[in-house]
Amino acid sequence: MHALRIVICFVLVWAVMSMPPYVQAAVDKQSDLNILNWKEADRLAAAMYKDSVNGNMTNIHANMKNFTTVLSAPGMFDHMTYEQMKAITDSVIRFKQTLVAAKQDEQQLERAAARLRLVIDAVTHEQDAMWRQYATVIMDEMKQMAEAKTAAVWKQVSLQWLEHMDRLLPAASIDRPIEAIEMATSMITLVNKGIRDEVKHEDVQRALKDYESIILDNLFGSTKELETIAPIVEEPIPMQVLIWLGCIVTVTLAYVAYQKYRYDRDGIHNSPWGSL
After folding, report:
1. pLDDT for res 34
2. Average pLDDT, integer, range 72-89
């Protein structure tokens, strides 16, 4: 069985190494095309969000048609997980449903457009996705929810938190593990039950206190890092310290070399019983 695996690996490596140049060129070309398509999708999503804020429905319908065409291009979702594809398609469907609703709700349309904007941005900006800018907002809201003194205050803050989580969670699904998304989703479900009075808000508050830091850590990183979104600037080591370190290392190495030389010159050896 082990020999068979070795043979299979060898065959696969040989197949890749012997791939005709035109095949590899075609793969690279498709990859470059996908990158361009995602950038175009990002541009269109940004435009639709802006138009939803300004109430420009004509532009939204025109851009939505182009947006759907871009996402339908071959290979756009080839390297995505099921959860990532679902996050994108669900956001697209939500926006389309809100857009064609018989009774137009401008606020809901803007929220759906923001949701779509963030999830597409997460695909095209892996290192600096916009949804991460919600870190301090979510942290502050969860703290207020956990410390709210009355049910009315708790519900008011919770509704804001739910709106923000609904907006950013699909985008977070692009580069966060499914376990982190599921934990956040479970807390969303519990908060919704508290708002509907199916669960006492005090019970929800206790759960928030227990799991707040875990949820924040899984979504945004360490809660200590959420005090500021600015990148940490590492201060350079002072030159004096570097010089002292260099001197210490040099003296240590010179001492060891001298001791070795002295042992060899004077015939100093360990005792027959070894070092104690």
Report:
1. 85
2. 92
Residues 6 or more apart whose CB falls under 8 angstroms from that of 213 comprise 223
**pTM (predicted TM-score):** 0.69
Give the residue among 168, 180, 177, 166 at the shortest CA–CA distance from 211.
Answer: 180
Q: Beta-carbon neighbour count of residue 74 at 10 Å? A: 10
- Secondary structure (DSSP) of the chain: -HHHHHHHHHHHHHHHHT--HHHHHHHHHHHHHHHHHHHHHHHHHHHHHHHHHHT-HHHHHHHHHHHHHHHTSTTTTTT--HHHHHHHHHHHHHHHHHHT-SS--HHHHHHHHHHHHHHHHHHH-SSS-GGGGGHHHHHHHHHHHHH-SSHHHHHHHHHHHHHHHHHHHHHHHHHS-HHHHHHHHHHHHHHHHHHTTSS-HHHHHHHHHHHHHHHHHHHHS-GGGGG--SPPPPPPPPHHHHHHHHHHHHHHHHHHHHHHHHHHHHT----TT---
Backbone angles phi, psi at 15, to 5 degrees: -65, -40
Cα–Cα dist 69/88, whole Å: 15
Rounded mean pLDDT of the chain?
80
pLDDT in tens, 145-191: 999 999 999 999 999 999 999 999 999 999 999 999 999 999 999 99
pLDDT tens digits, one per residue of 227-246: 433 333 334 445 554 454 55
